Amino acid sequence: MNTTLQPAVAGLARRIEGPVLLPGQNGYDDERSGFNLACEHRPDVVVGAASTADVVAAVRFAADQGIQVVAQATGHGVGVPLEGGLLISTRRLDGVQLDPGARTARIEAGVRWRQVIDPAAASGLAPLSGSSPLVGAVSYTLGGGLPVLGRTFGWAADQVRRLEVVTADGELVIADPDQNADLFWALRGGKGGFGVVTAMEVDLVVPPGLYGGGLVFAAERAADVVHTWRDWTARLPDAMNSSAGLVRMPDAPGIPEPLRGRLTVHIRIAYAGPFDEGEELVRPLRDIGPRIVDTVAGLPLADIAAVYDDPTEPIAYDERSLMLSSFDEGAADALIAAAGPDASADGLIMVGVRQLGGALARPPRHPHALDHDDAAFSVAAIGLGPAAGDAVLSALAPWGTGLRFLNFVGGPAASVLAPEAFRTGTRDRLAAIKQVRDPGGVFPAPHLGVS
């Protein structure tokens, strides 16, 4: 603990509506905790922001004290732990304002996607949320946001209309195509390091239906399933979204008996259209053979989380990614060899290959800091150790674009891997904006090589 801060922290606490906590105080550990237990923030002070004014006061305090600031909502995407400095917990900023007529939502910094999905679905609308409804909506979107329905509607970052940002000098500004356009570009894909986004306004979409869920096959069918899925993706309309995952479930309570302690192949399906069309499109996958689990069916929009059925309890994990220019027969063979039933794959929990293209490859309405319009597939590897996914990603590197997806880079190695989410020109432009907007380095930006 930086003991020289203690007198100043007492003054800060008088200006903050939410809690202001020091190490050892009740609530400090809960406030700094996140979903990914592999990374642990150890700040000198935690501010549980209860309002935008609290964020402004916290940032001004940090700038005056010469310490760094990191904001955290859910802690799914933690890459580099904060040692010292000030952590702003945004979980109390949980306001959601829907305008069904305009098909928009204003979402505050601590909101999880579930808080948007449910009220939007009641009006036949949907946000471009990711696989887990428990992820923070703002931080997910700032990293680009790869939605479950991405091939149909595009990147979540492209649905952003405006951002409310507290900059390094403690000022609240609006970033949109007409105001602070440099921040609007950088924050949509460039993620953190430029300020604290306290709220965003996004467009919602109108799916004409949702046919989705999972097909789970036994490990011995892995090669057949992956190759069939690969062939199948070549003939799909943009309304069909899918991925193939090799999943190693632990032998632990709470895991369904058919999956417990087994390697399985999990095909995830999300068709944005009529149920009968989706069922017909999925038929070739069902024709592969018997499934351990088959949950693919017509779904209400509120049940979109059933497509991936992501874990809901915090765990310690390392996540790494790679964007692929193609996923041909050789790539499928490489995936099976590295992560299939005959691979050792020590510590590997899951490797998933997701088809991109469609709306994800179209020019954005407003330029953004994403360099993945030429990627045809993405790969994410999640493991219990920092090198668990290396064998898989190395095996697939010949098909890679050379880039990673920022939202799929988390854990202790993130500071090394995250800069590889951008082409050199994009990273240089982000760094230039960072220098102008935060010359004192109030906000760390490891993905730009700035600690």
Describe the structure.
With 451 residues, the chain is an alpha+beta fold. The protein has three domains: 3-89, 2-Layer Sandwich (Uridine Diphospho-n-acetylenolpyruvylglucosamine Reductase, domain 2); 99-206, 2-Layer Sandwich (Uridine Diphospho-n-acetylenolpyruvylglucosamine Reductase, domain 3), CATH 3.30.465; 211-421, Vanillyl-alcohol Oxidase, Chain A, domain 3 (3-Layer(aba) Sandwich). The chain contains 13 helices and 17 strands. Strands 10, 11, 12, 13, 14, 15, 16 and 17 form an eight-stranded antiparallel beta sheet that branches. Strands 5-6-9-7-8 form a five-stranded antiparallel beta sheet. The longest helix is centred in the first third of the chain and has 14 residues, at 52-65. The protein starts with 5 loop residues before the first helix and ends in a 14-residue tail after the last helix. 53% of the residues are buried.
